[in-house]
Amino acid sequence: MGNSGSAVKVCTDHQGGINWLSLSPDGQRLLTGSEDGTARLWSTADSQCHGHFQGHESYITFCHLENEAAFTCSADHTIRKWDVVTGQCLAIYRGHTSIVNRILVAKDYLFSGSYDRTARCWSVDKEKQIQEFRGHRNCVLTLAHYSSRDVLEEEEEEEEEEEKVSRDLLVTGSTDCTVKVWWVSSGRCYQTLLGHTGAVLCLILDAPNRELFSGSTDYTIRTWNIVTGEQLKVFKEHQGSVICLELVNRHLYSGSADRTVKCWFVDTGERIQTYKAHKHSVSTLKYHAGILFTGSGDACARAFNSRSGVLQKIFRGHKFIINCIQIHNELLYTASHDGTLRIWDIRGICKRNKRRFKKERSVQGRSSQKGSLSRLFNNKVGCMVQQENRE
């Protein structure tokens, strides 16, 4: 069993549950979006709240933080852009006719998915809708973005001459059981990926290998070729909805409503490890320094050795589901539906894991010199996904 941990700080400024937590690219700030209709900006240097963004007329479903701007989307059907220094609302993006579930910022584009069955593309700077992606029969829950330059050969690109103005593509996952790939420039659907029999809750893209992974309420993860639309593999061992995914070095972690996380070797489809001990759904997870950190509906965060699956620590203190986690400078940040942001020191776990890893490498090296075969397990597995905590 792992040891229990106490938070080094508990931030209680929000008056409602925290639905999402975003870390800026430079690691200097965190952004929380809450049921209280506000977002708050936190410094990772002193763990203090340095910004309070007010203006939404309903709860915030998701948020995204850049170095100089913050973005929030809400059940009030809008998306807002904020200045992280002044707290001023810089833009309001209007057009959706229902709850906006998810946003994604890429290049000069802002993408959004909504309960109104559409995804939309906006100009970040001009507060203007550029494109609408219409074709799903139900709610759009999750988004991914890539450029055809990342996946298509030159001769294949020539076949898509009409899309040459912009080679950007948007991927959308929906409760209609489908994944769709769209040309951003025209709004035309490039591929519809059929196979899931339940809502698609999470997506993760591996553009260099032309692969897309999707997790669903049908208990499966499916791998797709994003150029041809071909379904490559189906991962079937979960006994509940697949809520979150992340891929690192051809290993995939999947968190599920069956109270487990599983690690898969992508190239063969083999399930390598199962991480147990959760008493409720696994809502979020993240890999760091050989450790798998998870957040659960049982209000606990956990740390597992990514190789052995051994539980190393339990972080107790939250009252309700942990919706999101981030890691920076060996501090673990957990955001919960109880309205608190909790900060945990993970230096001890990281140090122990590094010592264990060095010891294992040394033993493996000696075994190799004696001519024995050592089987290495790649521990650089990560989880980032996108989850849906609200129907």
UniProtKB/TrEMBL annotation:
Keywords carried by this UniProt record: Repeat, WD repeat
- WD repeat ranges are 11-43, 93-132, 169-192, 193-234, 235-274, 315-347
Q: Which PROSITE patterns match?
A: WD_REPEATS_1 (PS00678), WD_REPEATS_2 (PS50082), WD_REPEATS_REGION (PS50294)
**Family matches, as Pfam families:** WD40
Membrane-spanning parts? none
Q: Does the keyword Plastid apply?
A: no
Q: Which InterPro entries match?
A: Quino_amine_DH_bsu, WD40/YVTN_repeat-like_dom_sf, WD40_PAC1, WD40_repeat_CS, WD40_repeat_dom_sf, WD40_rpt, WDR86-like
Name assigned to this protein:
WDR86 protein
* Organism ancestry: Eukaryota, Metazoa, Chordata, Craniata, Vertebrata
The gene from which this protein is expressed is Wdr86
